[in-house]
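User: Fold both of these, please.

Assistant: Here is the first one.
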Amino acid sequence: MTEVQTQANDSTIPAWDDAELSGLHENDEKAVKVQAMFNAIARSYDLNNRVHSMWRDVAWRKFAVKKARVQPGDRVLDVACGTGDLTQAFGRGSRAESIIGLDYTEGMLEIAEHKRGKLMGELSGRISYEQGDAMDLRFEDESFDVVSIAFGIRNVQEPSKAIQEFYRVLKPGGRLVILEFDQPSNPMVRWFNGFYCGKVMPRTATWIARDTSGAYKYLPRSVTSFMTRDEMKSCLEGAGFAQIGVQGLSLGICACYDCVKPHAE
């Protein structure tokens, strides 16, 4: 087992050091480091999400479900599902036949399964979880009506490769919805958000999580160094998606992208 593989399974070993954060999206070991990071913070992840978004993350996920326009009988794939919040939101907010939550990190899936066990029968029965890689989905072509990913695309080693996989597994006419943090266009909001996410949140979230992985240094840096809206739209277009839209939420702190896999001409 390599040092970095050991790191992914040992939450006491830091996933990120300060020197690595300057080029985190180009780091060849990004995927394994992200896996180690999320294993380390899994148990406090939901609490930190609620506290540091001021509970807005719940509204963002409800918005994503609405944008997905799920129809009765649809099959939904929620990629990078984490602890299953969006997966469950699809279950509660739609009549989808099945919702599969897929994540790269075992520790997050353990929490998701624990939460599923508390759901009532019919809802629990429509939801399932499994471990997998967004860049190499095990599913057959044209298997799903909806694919979603919330706050996970920037954590993928090669986002464009994952988006190509989303296109492959969607049926013609299927919808892709992406939630991701964004940079507000208003200068004052952008300054406040940068101060809060760059200075306040890393300290308080690290304290809540008792984290030694560097997760809450990585997370804000991964947002500011990720694709712009125009770059994301170009990536979606390059994969073949059409009717690409983006809407800013909470003064532009979060962006919701939605698009469609067109029918063959």
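And the second sequence with its predicted structure:
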Amino acid sequence: MEAGAVPALQTLQARLGYRYTRADLLRRALTHRSWGAEHNERLEFLGDAVLSLAVSRLLYERHADSDEGDLTRVRAHLVREDSLHRVALSLGLPEVMRLSEGEARGGGAQRPSILADAVEALIGAVFLEGGYEAAHAVVQRLFGDIISATEAESWGKDAKTELQEWLQARRVPVPAYRITATRGQAHAQTFEVECAVPTLGLAERGEGRSRRIAEQEAARRLLASLKTKDQPGGPLRS
């Protein structure tokens, strides 16, 4: 790392509650593939699995009375890109990421996907260097407060799941999703997705910085429309 980055790296490690002894692992965890061959994608792969296990353990211990479905939904919320992006910002990752000049000029240091991946890579690096318990301690530091403060049952189902269950309960075929438009450069695209139920002649669209987010928004809008139409006197009740 450049000399000017040393204070920021020290701050990062203090916020993680872990000090790396292998500078190469820390450096790689903060290196985007645009920088060169020694990037963080393999560490991200490892960190994703470690994060999922550590969060699962914390949820299992905290929410002893919650069933598998509730715990799975909470875990999905905690490890999704939006949540990891917020963690990355709290750690100050934009200041220490290693990106190519082009990626940096394009705003890569602020891009949620890049920062979320780096959080997972950092966890993977802790696991390689310090083992599972060290990685678990880092995850607990990053996610423990929100896990302790929330009730698992309050985390609702995602919109796509809720929509599918709503339709299946009424013996209506599951919805179809398709991308209708993409805008922006490849590294910062906005997706527009249509969610349609042809048998009911209904469709809604959603937008997001990933296909998954756009699908969820389209499903949420269609579900809201269906619930409105399903009210007494509505077209689905006639």
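The first strand starts at residue 176 and ends at 183.
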